[in-house]
Amino acid sequence: MPVKYIAVEGPIGVGKTTLAKMLCGRYSGRLVLERHDDNPFLGKFYKDRRRYAFQTQLFFLLSRFKQQQEFFTGELLATHVVSDYLFQKDRIFASLNLESDELALYDHVASLLEKKIPLPDLVIYLTASPETLIGRIGRRGRNYERNFDIDYLKELCQLYSKYFFHYNLTPLLVINTDNVNFANEPEQFEFLLEKIEQSRSGTNYLVQSRGI
């Protein structure tokens, strides 16, 4: 079966949107982008995580669900779709940011919504060191990400690693991006495209080759 629906995932600043746009352009597909700037609580969350965690998390969960419901129609079967997030990943942030009673309520809502969301044909999981991520976050210049907490980022990276170590919902392609730049080195991107076509089951890794 062809890989029609690809979700690109990974921690903050790893390059999900850049890669998703490149894949969408190559496949002449439809692009689904996470709407960070639509969340009215996000800026407040970065200033006071405990106070605004639940509002931020719930807004993301419901807005992503609404977006997926609007986007994924019967046309999904006829064209390529590339998303810069995996709907189920929201649980990673919830487990990091919410108190136990908030998490219980969140899990109840999320479990109901997830049943109505289609799974990708392939998830591409991008990784990088916290130091690399901090550098990328700083360069993209979002106001609410100024003075980003590296300790929070380290915790998030650990939870991502744990989540995808056990992940088995779909085929998974893992790429360490510390020394990979798909936007500036075309041969790396071409090699990735070949690997995507080979990743039809289980967990696979993009091993440096052909100058990567």
Task: Note the overall shape.
Answer: globular
Helix content: 40-55%
- The tally of helices reads 8
Mean pLDDT: 89
What's the SSE pattern?
A: EHEHHEHHEHHEHE
Whole-number tally of structural domains: 1
* Low-pLDDT runs: none
Q: Report the major sheet.
A: 6 strands, parallel
How is the largest sheet built, in terms of strand order?
Answer: 2-3-1-4-5-6
Highlighted features:
single chain; 212 residues; alpha/beta; Rossmann fold; six-stranded parallel beta sheet
Any overview of this molecule?
The model has no long low-confidence stretch (mean pLDDT 89). It contains 8 helices and 6 strands, in the order E-H-E-H-H-E-H-H-E-H-H-E-H-E. It has one domain: P-loop containing nucleotide triphosphate hydrolases (Rossmann fold, 3-Layer(aba) Sandwich). The radius of gyration is 17 Å and the shape is globular. The chain has 212 residues and is of the alpha/beta class. Helix 3 runs antiparallel to helix 4, helix 3 runs parallel beside helix 5 and helix 6 crosses helix 7. Strand 5, helix 8 and strand 6 form a beta-alpha-beta unit. It has a 6-stranded parallel β-sheet, with helices on both faces.
